[in-house]
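Predict the 3D structure for this chain.
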Amino acid sequence: MEIKKRYKLYKDGKNWCAMALAISAISAGLVLENTNVKADTPVDNVPVVKTTNPTTGDANAELASQEKAAQAKDNGNYGYLDAAQVVNNNDLHVSGWQATNQAAGKDNRYLVAYDGTTNTELGRTSITENVARPDVAKAYPDVVNAKDSGYQATMNNLDWSKVKSVDDQIHIVSRYSDAANGEGNHIDNWSQPINLDKGNYAYLDNFGVKDNQLQVSGWNATNKALGKANHYVILYDRTAGHEITRVKVEPTVRPDVAKAYSQVINAKDSGFNTAFSLAGIDLNHELQIISRYSDAANGEGNYVSYWYAPKKFAPANTSNQGSLDSFNLSNGQLIVSGWHATDYSQIENNHYLILFDNTNKTQVKTIKVANVTRPDVAKAYPIVATAGQSGFNANFGPVNLTPGHSYSLVSRYSTLDGGNGDNGQSKTTDYWFNPVTLDQQASYIDSFTKTDNGYNVKGWMISDQSINKPNAYLILLNDGQEIARTKVELIDRPNVAKVYPSIYNSQKSGFNGEFKVDPTKANGTLKVIMRFAGDDNHNYSDQYSQDYPTNAGNFDNVHVTASQVTLSGWHASSQVANKPYEWLIVLDNNGQELYRQEITDKGLGRNDVQNVYPYIEGANKSGFQVTMNIPTKMQGHLVRFVHRLTDDKDGNGNFIDLSSNPVLVNLQYNLNANGINRYILNNHINHATITVNHVIPSDTTDVYSETEDGKPNMVVVHETANPNDSIWGEINYEKAHYNNAFVHAFVDGDQIIEISPTDHEAWGAAYPANGRAVQFEQVEVYGANNFARELVNAAYYTAYKMNEYGMVPSLAQANGTGTLWSHHNVTQYIANGKTDHTDPDGYWTNRASRYFGTSYTMKDFFELVKYEYSHL
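Done. Predicted structure below.
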């Protein structure tokens, strides 16, 4: 086909068409542009016929005769494309007509699809049967073949790859030819241009995270893809405004799309299915897929794109919550339970638990778990959509643990199905639970009893050290020296596992051990070591029981009257054999014996003692009681009572002693010797209650620096020397100036107020007194009764503090001994010039003379202190 002929025919056709009615035709997906005459009768339902001579039956002779006659009348070339439609995504269904007397002698009829933009034939189809067109015959009566000029055909052999753009000018050429292949001598009629459907149709079937990839599938059908053989799927970060990556895809067959869009040439092969690595993708951003057809191998050049709707994968709620309910090593395996709630699990749908060694910075073990329901978590976190399915219960099985190391359980949601959920490209959300350090241990002795051969001990022992020290031993000590040991096989103790689930192998922790012991070697304080040891028995971990004294007892009751002391109690000893005598011995505070008396009322039943000391033979008959007259040399002394078991009838020989706490025997006082004390006694003046209001910070000073045990051993009496101030005025002053000086308490006639804890030093006198003494101030008061009440309050506070710290009232001595001191005494005996105060002497002298006509000294106050001390 020659280009010049095409132009000539097209031009002629237009000239002829100007003589007729111009009608435009629009068919599905195609627009036909032409001004050629269109017959009035539509092409639809027009029958296909062969025209013959009805008389002779010689069609060719009849036709030749008619054509020859017609040519003399009309030599025009008329035609029209009534309809053109792409069907089955490739075929072109056309119908129309061509009427011309120039068809005479050209018996081969063809339709040719032609791309006028690229001057390329797309394909041709032979028309073997004509369609009757009476409408055309009516319009063109002088054209012999007008009545049979119609055609209707589906062109299914077209090469659409030759079309470079949807905007190419596609024509249908109707041809009569004298050659069988449609070439040779021929007459053509060119249709108006055919416009292909320019729509861009697409749908994204799937755009989601699965198997650690961003998986995408869908389709994009458009005639605009003509001439663009390279199909790309592009991942675009809409939030950041840039392309992330692109993938060239091979077409996948989509018969559903082909059926829905039959007018789109590439619809049947419009599908795609691809995936993107998650590396470099921020799922918190809004992401978008672009389908692109391009004429360039890299997806650039001339292209047509379809932008699918963007999507944000990150959940609306980004909270990350968790709790570890149980970290259970009780059966030697690690069993954990808890929950991890985050809506990231909707896209990171692989759940892992990782045991991490914080000490070595290594992962010990990883397991993949299935989530379990947790309605409690859903209730607590209603805004987390996945909270109700956030639980886990998992068994790691045996794990290689190291005692002393710190371990963390990590809950991980990941896009990766495999490994620990993290390959450097996967997306993960972790929750680190609080670490657990394997340095726990616990033990308990349920019973320690005497047997014929020694002792039986029952109890349990657990330790994280048993991870690599599996051998359990019990060792018996006497005063710190080993006297027996036994290896034990541990047995089930579910009660222990319940209380200590996080300690290794606590389920199997019970023991029942027997010690064979020479009784003569168990004569001190017994103690049991519970040991886990390695196979070499040198690497071990010990726990110690409580002490089990083999000599125990108590003075349950010590009752002192004016002339007698009645004592009762019990004394149990494992060394009681061959010691039939019991004695009561009285020692003074310096350990000197003051008195002794044999006890005859002994061997009294004490099942209560047996229950506490079942390992001491004879404990059930260890009770005693005795009454003794008080000799003169014991009066007013602080003494200790000693109960002695001995083999000597005189209370000596081989013996075992039990001592009481210090007891003050008839502390003598005389209130009648001084008029003020006598006034107090006769008027039954009682003390006030001590009010504790510590306005001085407790960390101002430390414990007492001048005593061996850090506790006070004396009380110092002060007087404020301020005749016009109240007790609260003095307290507020010291509260504001305590960095310079302060005492522990203040007293007046109505109140005793402690302003600083007496377990710490005060700064009321010089050292060493500050480092030894509880100190208080007397506020100056007026009136006889008021002064007497103040003295009672001062004496009571002194006696109370002496009793609290185990002091017995005694006057200050020049050698530094004694428990009752005035500030003047401090100046006199121990200050070494560091203070020169003489209070409260002047204050007492003034008020005693003024209100009672007498004197008042530390000796008089000492009697009042002893009185209060005796009545505590």
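The longest strand covers residues 77-87.
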